[in-house]
Amino acid sequence: MKHKKLKNNLTAYAFCLPWFIGFIVFTFFPIVFMFVVSLTNRKLNGLSNFIGFANYVNMFKSPTFWNSFKVTLFFTIVMMIVTTIWAVIMAMLLNYKQRLNGIFQFCYFLPSVVPTIALAYTFRTIFGKEAGLLNAIISMFTKETVTINWLYDTQTVYLAVFFITLFTYNTGQMMLIFRAGLNDVPIQLYEACDMDGGGALTKFFYITLPMISPIVLFNSVMGCISALNGSFALLYPLTGESGDPNGMTQVLSLLIYKEAFSNMKVGYACALSVVLFFIACSFGIGIFMVSKKVVYYEN
Amino acid sequence: MNIAKMKKHMVEILIYIIKILVAIIMFSPIIWVFSGSFKTLTEFTTSSNIIPKNLTLENFEYIFTKSNYFIYVRNTVILMLGTTIGTLISSSLVAYPLARMEFTGKNIIFAIIIGTMMIPNIALIIPQYIMFGKIGWLDSLLPMIIPAYFAYPYNVFLFRQYFRSIPKELDEAATIDGCTKVGVFFKILVPITKSTFATIGILSCVFWWNELTQPVFFINSDKWRTLTMALMTSFMYTSGNAFVINWPSIMAASALMIIPPMLLYLFGSKYLVEGIKTSGLKG
Questions:
Q1: Measuring CA to CA, how many Å separate B220 from each of A179, A253, B214, B224?
Q2: Is A283 within the bounds of a domain?
Q3: Nearest CA in chain A to B110
Q4: Which domains does chain B have, with CATH numbers?
Q5: Does B256 contact chain A (CB < 8 Å)?
Q6: What is the mean pLDDT of chain B?
Q7: pLDDT digit string, tens, across residues B170-206
Q8: ipTM score here?
Q9: Distance from CA of A295 to the nearest CA of B (A)
Q10: Are the beta carbons of B272 and A175 closer than 8 angstroms?
Q11: Whole-structure pTM value
Q12: Beta bridge partners of B239
């Protein structure tokens, strides 16, 4: 019997072997290595000396870092909220049974599978100062010539950037998932609410939202990760490595890229990566802590 | 009663109008891309018409003749196929014991896999860059393709979800017939979860078709650029003292990049849409 169990264990480990090697080589080792390099003044050409915690000291003294830190938190949280709400709205619209829903879903979902880079460049022209689509539309309604440079104006840049996040893969993915989740809410609950005279809002906040909360939770975790991860592909072509205007969109991933490849300070970039790593960890842990309190699980 | 009916009618119409508005908002960038791709550079930079005044094909001509477009297509296809084949094989193998076997340390392994799912790739990309530089993989597709053969946590997670939904009695029956665990996997599980492989394969292809971050970090030279990178860098030139971004060509290249996912949605939405739905449901 013992022999059989051992054999069973060994078979299972053999199946897990590819993951285990991958984990050690491509995840665990880079994490350790990242900490080590962050203690050196390594340059892009490979020269490096041990300098202790000097990178961290410089980092915590640098206003650019603190700005980037704040922008990262702000961008991640707001993007998560904005895209989740928009996805719920679209899912509820599509779940309202009417004709042509197939075509509507096509229109709502297609932008999500458009490459982020194509999306970013498209919006650079839509939000452009001259011959931009948005300014043209506003001009049409107001009969005045509007020349707002949406992505370079400190007052409009966030509006423009978060609007663009509505078109990312993350939003489309959540929309489809919420559609499925909303369909699973038992119809009897709504009927019961009808009998008690509950309105549309009561139904939404007391039935729909609690019932889909586990899905919302799971997707906000995934949304967080993709906001941290995807911000580079979206913002780099949109506002550049310095996060124009005035670093207002310079999330940590952009700063890491800039320090490593433009300023060639790889050691310092690793110290920044360590911070990003911990931000990701704390987001993950934080969301699960919150979930224990507010999420409703059926079982 | 009549009033109630009318009210319901009004609500229906109102929702229709909202739906159409949202559709216009969501679809406008795609229309803008396609319209822009047929404009001349002068028209693109001076007017914002949706319908081009004088339709031109010069942008597509420019892409195909003045840039190494076919090399970029080749690289993207190699990247897509290389990573997708790799992750399908390795992730399904790893997911199998996690979904259908009892063994010591199973929970710890699964917890680590979920934990690593949470680490954004961008946080580890600099140490990986140094590492791949040391073994001479930089400026090639290897830093992206090779790791795919060692199981992506997210795909392991997805495979596990699907594998768990298959009745366990099948395995037991096969074991009684003298089938080994390896045999169960290849002879029973893989054949009945073919559509799972298709789904995860398609999701992986969509991901790598769109991926920009990793190529930007790992690739330098033109000969290994992917389409996404080319879109970002290949359509700008200096004319005299002026730095010119050839916007309509970028639009044309974007339009070409949108077409494959669009066709995929139209003809393979069973796998794409169903796959995405399952990818986010708690199980």
A1: 42, 19, 11, 8
A2: yes
A3: A16
A4: 2-59 (no CATH), 67-234 (1.10.3720.10)
A5: no
A6: 88
A7: 888 888 888 888 888 888 889 988 888 998 999 899 9
A8: 0.89
A9: 13
A10: no
A11: 0.91
A12: B242
